[in-house]
Write a structure and sequence with these properties.
Elements (H helix, E strand, L loop, with lengths): L3 E4 L3 H12 L6 E4 L23 H4 L5 H5 L2 E4 L4 E5 L4 E4 L4 E3 L2 E4 L3 E3 L12 E2 L4 H10 L5 E5 L3 H12 L3 E5 L12 H13 L3 E3 L4 E5 L2 E4 L4 E3 L2 E4 L3 E3 L2 H5 L8 E2 L11 E3 L4 E5 L5 E3 L4 H16 L10 E6 L2 E7 L6 E7 L4 E8 L2 E8 L2 H13 L5 H5 L5 H6 L1
Parallel strand pairs: 1-2, 1-7, 2-3, 7-19, 9-16, 10-11, 10-16, 11-12, 18-20
Antiparallel strand pairs: 4-5, 5-6, 8-17, 13-14, 14-15, 20-21, 22-23, 23-26, 24-25, 25-26
Helix pairs in contact: 1-8
């Protein structure tokens, strides 16, 4: 019987283990992860967990009993140290060696570190794991001041949660706008205004030069005072295990449409992968999102279980901040213009990115109809009339049908 070993017990790895059983795989399944907890959801860490709105039971992907009930061996708190593709074995830090017939790497990503004075201070926080979230949660309280270095989604979500807990918050971004690498200027401007309206100080074009007692030092000499400092400047793929095993790596582990690596017996899924996106012409990207983790878990599990490959999906992402739900579908690459539908002042609008007469990306703020229709139109490469798309008197259903 085919033995499957899964390295990484996060959203991707946990889902792949469950899908293997769902898809009829009867051989042994070993799911091994570095963290002490069973597979859990990471997105709530910067939101519901920080605000005390959920507990560990609410975070878990599945009850811990699920794994034993489905004959999945779950090993937590273990670190894989080496993969030997020739021998088809995985070595662990505790000295154990596990053979495999099929291996799934779901090692995720880790917070990017800053090479600055004071960046190794033990009181600096990041937000990738449950343990990280616990430290941040314990540090936030009324009267405390949080400085967030990095104006990306996680940083903005943490700032919003800090405000909900009565703490002060300041966001420090070195680019000229928040979300500069991942969103349109319209979206950046909206979130900047929204955070400022909720009492968050937003500093852009602000270069951090070091960390010291009392806060964050900027290039212009200012000390941004803070009781708590959270660094959120992106993430790097945890691809060292794959690279040392000789697998092709480039901005992550290189995989094909079935999540298979350069070794036919090894798959990789989730944040760690550099993967082709069929709806975007097969161009490769490294995506950090739950939908991406789930899609690739389906691909790997289907391939190993001998099932037909699932249909390609349109990438999508989300972020919750205050009472705002942001949903994004597609990637804006190749876009030559943007169409705004709705009014950002109402906190309900969408920005559509078009390449010719095709939508390639939609950013929807409190606009579920625009998100759903946009996502479907991206997947189908449906031509669109830009004037009708911008006209709020024309329903999205009618726009999509035209």
């Amino acid at each position: 019987m085919t033995k499957v070993v899964i390295i990484g017990a996060g959203h991707a790895g946990g889902t792949a283990a469950a899908l293997l059983r769902q898809y009829g795989h009867e051989g042994p399944v070993l799911l091994a992860g570095e963290e002490p907890a069973a597979p859990y959801q990471r997105p709530p860490l910067s939101k519901a967990w920080l605000k005390g709105e959920t507990d560990l039971e609410g975070l878990l992907l599945r009850p811990e009993s699920f794994y034993a009930e489905h004959d999945i061996e779950l090993r937590t708190g273990v670190t894989a140290t080496a993969v030997d593709p020739a021998a088809k074995t995985v070595s662990f830090a505790d000295g154990t060696v596990e053979p495999y017939d099929a291996l799934i790497l779901a090692t995720g990503s880790t917070a990017r570190k800053l090479a600055l004075p004071g960046a190794d201070r033990p009181d600096l926080l990041e937000l990738r794991t449950l343990a990280d979230a616990e430290k941040l949660k314990a540090a936030l309280a009324p009267g405390r001041r949080l400085a967030v270095v990095g104006g990306g989604y996680v940083g903005l979500e943490a700032a919003a949660s800090a405000r909900a807990l009565g703490a002060e918050a300041v966001v420090i971004e070195r680019m000229d706008r928040v979300l500069a690498r991942v969103a349109s200027r319209t979206l950046s401007d909206f979130f900047t205004r929204y955070h400022r309206d909720h009492g968050v100080e937003v500093l852009t074009s602000a270069e951090v030069t070091g960390f010291e007692d009392g806060g964050v030092r900027l290039g212009d000499g200012r000390l941004i005072e803070a009781d708590v400092v959270l660094v959120g400047v992106g993430a790097q793929a945890c691809s060292q295990l794959a690279a040392s095993a000789g697998l092709a790596c480039e901005n992550g582990v290189v995989v094909d449409e079935t999540a298979r690596t350069s070794d036919p017996a090894i798959w990789a899924i989730g944040d760690v992968t550099f993967r082709p996106i069929p709806v975007h012409g097969g161009r490769r990207h490294r995506l950090e999102s739950v939908p991406n983790a789930l899609e690739q878990a389906k691909q790997a599990a289907a391939a190993i279980a001998g099932r037909p490959a699932p249909a390609p999906e349109t990438p999508w992402f989300w972020s919750d901040q205050y009472d705002v739900k942001l949903q994004i579908a597609g990637l804006p690459e190749g876009a030559d213009r943007q169409v705004l539908r709705g009014d950002p002042a109402t906190a309900a609008f969408a920005v559509f990115h078009l390449a010719g007469d095709r939508i390639v990306c939609v950013e929807a703020v409190n606009a579920p109809a625009e998100f759903m229709a946009g996502r479907q139109m991206i997947g189908r490469a449906t031509p669109v009339d830009a004037d009708r798309l911008a006209d709020m008197s024309v329903s999205m259903k009618a726009v999509a049908a035209a």
